[in-house]
């Protein structure tokens, strides 16, 4: 070990009856030197996972600057903020490692060059958040992490996901199109999906692929400059026969040429396809955009089990009225004008299509602060 001069160290299949296990820290202190690029430590025994704690002291300044690939298996690993940045780390693979989600997030936040992350049976992770500062991060693989309930990706260039769990949250531009195009084949068992997009350049395509087990869908579409046809979201409804709840948060205000009052009153129709499980739909930031009105009418016609439909014409980033009697609440200007136009669209095109079994809740601007038609 003292004569080791390579750039990588691999310790594989070390068994607990080897006396070398008791000297492992000493071995690693000798072997892991500044300039090292690869370190693989796979102890391959569940006993080690409880008893062996990977020493953070190995990551000296020189090691943190040089190490590119780190692979750990069957041990305990508790990175902290004091660890410092791993400037060259591009690949991280953890297998049966005892680590919490906040500890992993700390490590990711200090690994700005990271490109790939693989997690295998790391059951201490409940929530995985991938920071937006990981500009090079493009590949995520997760298998057998039984307690993992939520993945939220803020990395802008994540392009490949291999995932065996049920709940996924993704945040970046064009994620709605990406999710509809790619996720049914690589994540067929999704139970819940949350998508947040700052801008969608293209509308959501109609495809034959399905989310057979998807029950809960949340979509947030931000203030990006590109026009978007909300009616194209029918693609998700057609692909999700088990869907129970749909939450759509729309911060975009329609341009004058997008409002239904600037178009022919004829509404587009889709081939009738009954949705037997969809019970609750909420649209926040509901506007007079023609595609949004058409999407709502499609839901009312085809969601045969629908119980509650909420159309909130206020935008999520506006404050609610406090009711204190001082000042006005946050809806004003163009947003207030659009909210009034949205209420008119609901009365004109939607209210008479609501079945008696459905509870329609319409939320408008505060009547105390604003005079409504």
TrEMBL record:
Organism in which the protein naturally occurs: Digitaria exilis
Listed PANTHER family: FBD DOMAIN-CONTAINING PROTEIN, OS02G0105600 PROTEIN
Record-annotated At1g61320/AtMIF1 LRR domain positions: 1-367
Record Gene3D superfamilies: Ribonuclease Inhibitor
Pfam families: LRR_At1g61320_AtMIF1 (PF23622)
The name this protein goes by in its record: At1g61320/AtMIF1 LRR domain-containing protein
InterPro entries according to UniProt: At1g61320/At1g61330-like, LRR_At1g61320_AtMIF1, LRR_dom_sf
């Amino acid at each position: 070990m003292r004569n080791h001069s390579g750039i990588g160290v691999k310790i594989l299949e070390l068994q607990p009856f080897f006396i070398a296990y008791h000297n492992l820290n000493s071995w690693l202190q000798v072997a892991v030197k500044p300039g090292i690029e690869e370190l693989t430590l796979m102890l391959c025994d569940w006993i080690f996972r409880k008893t062996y704690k990977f020493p953070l002291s190995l990551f000296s300044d020189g090691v943190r600057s040089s190490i590119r690939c780190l692979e750990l298996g069957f041990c305990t690993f508790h990175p902290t903020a004091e660890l410092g940045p791993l400037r060259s780390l591009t690949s991280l693979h953890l297998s049966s490692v005892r680590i919490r989600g906040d500890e992993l997030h700390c490590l990711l936040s200090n690994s700005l060059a990271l490109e790939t992350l693989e997690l295998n049976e790391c059951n201490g992770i409940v929530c995985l958040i991938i920071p937006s500062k990981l500009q090079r991060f493009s590949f995520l693989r997760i298998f057998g992490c039984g307690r993992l309930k939520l993945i939220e990706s803020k990395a802008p260039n994540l392009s490949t996901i291999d995932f065996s769990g049920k709940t996924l949250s993704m945040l970046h531009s064009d994620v709605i199109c990406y999710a509809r195009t790619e996720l049914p084949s690589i994540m067929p068992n999704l139970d819940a999906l949350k998508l947040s997009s700052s801008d969608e350049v293209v509308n959501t395509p109609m495809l034959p692929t399905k989310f057979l087990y998807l029950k809960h869908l949340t979509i947030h579409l931000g203030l990006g400059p590109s026009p978007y046809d909300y009616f194209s979201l029918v693609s998700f409804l057609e692909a999700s026969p088990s869907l129970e709840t749909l939450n759509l948060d729309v911060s975009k205000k329609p341009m004058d040429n997008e409002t239904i009052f600037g178009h022919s009153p004829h509404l587009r129709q889709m081939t009738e396809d009954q949705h037997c499980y969809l019970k609750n739909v909420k649209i926040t930031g509901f506007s007079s955009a023609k595609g949004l009105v058409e999407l709502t009418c499609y839901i009312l016609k085809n969601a045969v089990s629908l119980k509650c439909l909420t159309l909130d014409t206020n935008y999520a980033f506006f404050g609610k009225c406090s009711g204190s009697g001082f000042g006005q609440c946050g809806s004003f200007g163009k947003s207030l004008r659009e909210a009034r136009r949205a209420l008119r669209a609901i009365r004109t095109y939607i209210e008479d299509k609501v079945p008696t079994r459905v509870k329609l809740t319409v939320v408008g601007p505060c009547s105390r602060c604003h005079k409504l038609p």
